[in-house]
Amino acid sequence: MKRWAPYWLALPGWMWLGIFLVVPIVAMASVSLQTGNLLDGFVQTFSVSNYTDAIGKYSTQLVRSLVYGGVATVIMLLLGYPVAYWIAFKAGSRKSMYLFLLLLPFFVSFVLRTISWGFLLADDGILFGTLKGWGLLPENFHVLATTVAVIGGLVYNFLPFMILPIYVALERVDPRVIEAAYDLYASRFDAFRRVVLPLSLPGVFAGVLMTFVPATADPVNAAVLGGTGNTMIGNIIQTEYLVNSNYPTASALSFTLMAVLLVGIFIYARALGTENVLEAAAR
Amino acid sequence: MRTRFGDRILHWYTWLIILWLSSPIVVMIMFGFNDKKSKSNTSWQGFTLKWYQQLFAIDGLTEALINSVIIAVVSTILATTLGTLLGLAVGRYRFRGKGVTNFLIFAAISTPELVMGASLLSLFVSANAPRGHITIIIAHTLFSLAFVVVTVRARVVVLDPSLEEAARDLGAGTWDTFRLVTLPSIMPGVAAGAMLAFALSIDDYVVTSFVNGSELTFPLWIIGSVKVGIPAQVNVMGTLIFALGALVAVANSVSARRRAAR
Predict the structure, then answer these.
(1) Cβ-Cβ contacts under 8 Å, B92 against chain A
(2) Which backbone phi and psi does A38 adopt, to 5 degrees?
(3) Does the CB of B242 have a partner CB in chain A at under 8 Å?
(4) Which of B194, B239, B162 is nearest to B72 (CA)?
């Protein structure tokens, strides 16, 4: 009886994950190898032409998404690390207050936050409209519907996911280790570079993981803040599925995106051990 | 002792980032009070409370908000139940398939939302299942489940097994031990998981956009109205949800501090 306890506990969860995560991905793999159209129906042909066609047709958007996601991740790392560092080492008893303030925007829906950010960037909005009124900006100045707006939106939306894991890693650094470095005549910079930075790397890994994947696959920022020249792969997949009902192409694109992203993740996960990554992600 | 110059700069910098992250929230709250005349709501035209008085004047929006709340409540209950059981299993026992289970949980968290939504749609299309409330709840339970497992497992692994042994020695059955000893000690993890599940569900746009059929949730309705101009009621609802969420979080941390002080 006792021997079976874990299986009974796990059974409902397994079924849910199996039926709604594993089976759909298999279903998607099968759809991506079908040919046909909505009217005549789709036939399983195991032809890889969907992949070659889709990648050929949308390589621009695929590459653009990876570039936007990558650039946004690097900016988030550069912007976020000092914040995590200051809160972990210098905020003293106010740590939780600062973390709370950083997380405050999450009480507003992601979609609404992005739209509000768009309000702020609007050509005649309170920021640029006012500056133009004062003659500080030329009349034709605009940010909305440009690459800058989209990458800025991605950074804005996912930055806390970069800061938190780095903060967790830095928080666990034993201050005595840093003192030891000073005792051994390390300069402030050396102590940071050779002691603090290496110890915070798991947090950096987790932060990159938690920002790069959603930023690259995100369709919302490009739709709300970008123009016609900023379409990302997420928008294409949505359109192919929901507007064009071109399921094989859309599935092939989703698979390609997932393959590209997951290959990266599993290299990380292998290097750190899955449980470590999950733990870092959960904190 | 004088604070170092570099530290002071970092302090200001941290505040600057916080201000930047909060600025769209300020804009959202402010324009809920804007006496706008046209469809667009980007320039300030005077103070009014009329959007608060006419909060539920837009039928589609109200309906979408109600949909969102119902879906969030149901999927939170499902995800918390399944996730707690699974969290107990992987946190406490060694069993065949534990590695696979951990991998599945990891996959559920790291699969991009877009791929999760697209693959679920592939399944529902292949199975000819009609899309609506039920498919949205299935999807939301799926992505919340893994987060509940992770928060519950974190509590289970630090749970002292001798407590349960003591309960059993005192004559408690399996169910009583679970109800009176195990569940109360893992409750903070369960509650955190449930809150996370609710927040993820009510906020979700990407996955929902694939499996919703013609059913609209709050985020979907908002995205749908971007092109035609977002009514100020959206700002008001966003403000109220924000205030409620922040209040719950503050109350939660205050009560946690009280408990810790006792």
Answers:
(1) 6
(2) -60, -40
(3) yes
(4) B194
For chain A, which residues make up each domain, given as ranges? 76-109+157-282
Output the CATH code of domain A76-109+157-282. 1.10.3720.10
Residue of A nearest to B123 (CA): A24
Which residues are registered as beta bridge partners of B47? B34
The beta-carbon neighbor of A122 closest among B42, B123, B206 is B42
Predicted TM-score (pTM) of this structure: 0.86
- Residue ranges of alpha helices (H) inside A134-246 are 147-171, 175-183, 188-191, 197-217, 220-225, 233-238
| Nearest C-alpha neighbor of A190 from the set A262, A126, A198 | A198
CATH architecture for the domain at B59-230: Orthogonal Bundle (1.10)
- In order along its 283 residues, chain A shows pLDDT tens digits of 567 888 898 999 999 999 999 999 988 888 888 887 766 677 777 778 888 888 889 999 999 999 999 999 999 999 999 999 999 998 888 888 899 999 888 888 899 999 988 888 877 777 777 777 787 777 777 778 889 999 999 999 999 999 999 999 998 888 888 888 888 988 888 888 888 888 888 888 888 888 998 999 999 999 999 888 889 999 999 999 888 888 888 999 998 998 888 776 777 667 665 555 555 544 4
Domain ranges of chain B: 1-58+234-262, 59-230
Q: Please list every residue in chain B whose beta carbon sits closer than 8 Å to the beta carbon of residue A30.
A: 126
Query: In the structure encoding, which two tokens stand for residue B58, read together?
Result: 């837009």
Instruction: Say how far apart CA A212 and CA A238 lie, in whole Å.
Output: 19
For A192-219, give the DSSP string: IIIIIHHHHHHHHHHHHHHHHHHHHH--
